[in-house]
Amino acid sequence: MKSSPIFLLLVLGAARLTAADPVPLTLADCLKLSGNQHPALAAAQAGLTAAGEAVNEARAPFYPRVDFSAGYHRFQRRAYLPAGLSLPGGAASKLIGPFDDWNGGLFSRVTLFDFGARQAGLTAAQARRAGAAAEAAATQTDLRTTVEAAFHTLATAQELQQAAGQNLDRTENHHRLASLRRQAGAVPQADVLRTAAEMAEARLQLITAQSRVRRTAGELNTAMGRAADTAVIIAPEAGLPPPEPVDYAAAVEQALARRPELLASNQRTLAARATVTAARAARAPKLNADASFGWRDTAWVPETREWQAGLTLDLPIFDAGGRRRGLARARAEVAREEAADAGRRLQVRQEVWAAQVELERSWAAIGANEAGMQAAAESLRAVRERYEVGAAIITDLLDTQTALARSEAALAEARGNYRIARVLFARATGANP
User: Fold this and answer.
1) What mean pLDDT is predicted for residues 145-156?
2) What is the distance between the alpha carbons of residues 369 and 79, in angstroms, rounded to a whole number?
3) According to the model, what pLDDT value does residue 16 have?
4) Is residue 307 in some structural domain?
5) How far apart are CA 406 and CA 315, in angstroms?
6) Do the bridges between strand 65-78 and strand 95-113 make them parallel or antiparallel, or are there none, so unpaired?
7) How many structural domains does the chain have?
């Protein structure tokens, strides 16, 4: 049996449409995409790399520094001789030169002792690197939270769109029912007009719900590091597990121990304290060793050797209070970081408390809204039956229909709020990896 050309075209067209449709993304898929391509993670990683290079830079002063220098100059200078002295031969020359000056050589210098200034700089750099690592972890955690919240927000928008579509179907059914009863002479034309107005309002609500789906899809794409207009379909998670019993004190202790912001804050405080040590050492003497070796002559290639080696003691005497003010500034920065760290710890406690309260509230709201929706659905069924037999008026029918639509929307919002509350509670307690 031969396949018809039309059948083949339909099959090929369906295959093209299927290939063009985006694959539904689970929450795990969205998190993986955000971890692979989001610019915020790249920026955090670059900051961590820079902090690591700063540690290596702080180690460099522990080793000798060797420089090579070479140059050529042609010069002529005035000769200054002490009074009463003259050059052999009589008249004193007033000029030296012109001469060529060729030179080249190596110069090395190393600090032998500096009262801990170099070690303090290295300690500060290491603390900043640890802080950068903690900040990178905080960025990753924040991004995960944003993606999860955007995913659940889109799922809620889709559920609201479904509820709006169901409400439009009910409104159309009620409009047909009122039209049939109007044709039978059982109800006035006003019933048909009322249901037509309600049908228009239901269409507007569906349009609003569809717009919300598009907007939240763009927010999810942005959270994943993609363009907002990228086509995206999600596969929402099924089921709503109840919240586990929460021990507030244990949750706070976990948050204080695991929140990356607090780890970064602690490292900034350590770096500030090391800066105080470095500022204090800047007021102490430093012992340096230096040496040089090279050649200098008036002709190329220079043949005269020059060398020197020795020790240098640098002792600060007067700097108009610069070092003293630098030490005072470093101490003030330590006080600022310690106060900021204490403030962050208070904020973390408040966040855990608020997240726990919202988690409990949103879970209770689901139960209340489920009961309200069931009651509204049963009320609409009863009123519709009464309206069909003329025992109820159109206002009763439309009021109960509106109540059911509101209950469905409220239940969808409550479910979405609970999912997001779980995400925020995990973020507040430091449970997210």
Assistant:
1) 96
2) 103
3) 46
4) no
5) 80
6) antiparallel
7) 1
Residue 163 belongs to domain spanning: 21-71+114-286+319-429
Distance between CA atoms of 72 and 225, rounded to whole angstroms? 57
| Residue 388, pLDDT above cutoff 60 | yes
Contacts of 222 (CB under 8 A, 6+ apart): 150, 228
pLDDT band at 19 (very low <50, low <70, confident <90, very high): very low
Residue given tokens 């200034």 in the structure block: 117
Query: In this structure, is residue 306 part of a structural domain?
Result: no
Q: Give the residue from 398, 417, 394 showing the smallest Cα distance to 406.
A: 398
d(CA 402, CA 71): 91
Name the token pair of 418: 């609970």
Given the structure tokens 């993670």, which residue do they identify? 41
pTM of the model: 0.83
Distance CA 232, CA 156 (A): 15
Tell me the average pLDDT across 260-270: 94
> Given this model, what pLDDT does residue 23 score?
87
List the CATH number of the domain containing 338. 1.20.1600.10
Task: Of 91, 225, 233, give the one whose Cα is nearest residue 151.
Answer: 233
